[in-house]
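Quick start: read one record
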Amino acid sequence: MAVNIDRLLKEIRIVKEKLEDIETQVYMLKSQHLEEEELSEDELEELEDLAEETLRDGIPLEEFKSKLNEFSNSY
């Protein structure tokens, strides 16, 4: 049984292209999902207040980490 290297390379390129297409589609779906997520009014107000407070007073690093963890865990 002879192995046709050119044919195998061509098939590998095709598979690679299909994988790249799938990767692109997954990325687009993830992006679309993130765009569809909405913040509640309370979450939005809290983020705006925190941003204003930070600009005005600064914020200690540990408090920032705590707030960031709270925000991350809410999703």
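The two ends are 56 Å apart (CA to CA).
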